[in-house]
Amino acid sequence: MASDHGVHNFSITPGAVGSEILRQPIASPEDQRKAQRLRKLRERLVQERMALDRWMTRLRRAFNAVTKAQHSIARIEKEMTRLEESS
Known about the structure:
Blueprint: E1 11-14, E2 20-23, H1 29-86
Antiparallel strand pairs: 1-2
């Protein structure tokens, strides 16, 4: 359906003195419900994407902290092994 993609079907009706009046066709109640549902789903999608972006930021930060801790532990273990072997 063309109206689902942001394209509107307007009918042209004759007006006074050669002018034309653009009128949007009256949508059926079912079409109105579908349009309302789509609007709500789009809003929800935007909210969910924003929430995901926030979580991804936290996840990246946590991942970097874990990586840093792993490298630190590996360095300490390596130094301890070196010191124990030289004794």
